[in-house]
Amino acid sequence: MNDFLQNITPYQSIGALFVIAFTAHMTLGFILNSIAKHTSKTKNQLDDHLIKAVSPPLKVLIWFSLVFLSISVFKDQVKILVSVITYIDTMPIFIITWGVVRMMSGVEAYLIEKDTQIDNDSVRLFSRLAKILIIIAIALTVVQHLGFSVSGLLTFGGVGGIVMGFAAKDMLSNIFGGLMIQMDKPFSTGDWIRSDKFEGTVEKIGWRMTRIRTFSKNPVYIPNSIFATIPIETPSRMTNRRIKEVISIRYDDIEQLPIIMSEIEQMLKKHVDIDHSQSLRVYFNHFNTSSLDFNVYAFTNTVNKTTYQKVKEKILLSIAQIITKHKAEIAYPTQTLYIQK
User: What are the residue ranges of helices labelled H in the chain?
Assistant: First the structure.
């Protein structure tokens, strides 16, 4: 057996290694496909994401082994390959790190697809932070393995970080603004928000900017630091919609005003679409120039805008019917002229 190995040329060894790597690649692919077919029949989709995540790194690891062993075969003939081996022997660490990052992305995709109480923006944020921390930790470990001083690198990084902080303070404020949005949750993706400067639906909360789609369908990109300096209203999180109307009748109908307001109030208290746990008021408010004004104030059960408009329409028509029933009229601007003969 030893004589046989000694008679094999380096090129024959590489050929044999290629056959072994190719066979291992095909075998691994068959095994992973078989596992994927089995896991696709289960209700839990997490295993599908994990199998899909680890498949490419494992295959790359097989072919890297082929390259590494091939270089080892020729290292006695080509001296420079000895130095090459010294540096590439850390590649499996990066390949494994790649696999871990892909697995974290698979878990992230699973949590986003699954209907859970975890906010999707929070899942994306913490997934990205975890990936960055893992990559930095692995990179520092490899640098230490290659003989570089990690403490010196960190010291230089600290000084450089101060310089970069002054140079990119706006960018950093936007990044921290994004973190505050994720932590405080004033709004989430899909929410309808508005302020004095913009109004629309949140499409994406990024590291630096938040993309909002206005009701005219134009995208607006807002730096995250802006949200720390302006008040933000989130109408999509409202619990009720408000009906707040001023109804005006003629001065000639002042005697009917108390009974009209009383019937309107009773109508609202019996209305199935009005939330009776909220404030409900009907009260005389103002002697206007040509009308007697009274307020109608109530909250609907629905927050859907279309349904709210229909409910409000029915209530306003009912108010008009009550006014007409008592032979009163809704006022409109008028003037009375007294002509002296």
Answer: 2-7, 10-39, 46-74, 80-88, 91-113, 120-145, 150-167, 169-184, 257-270, 305-325
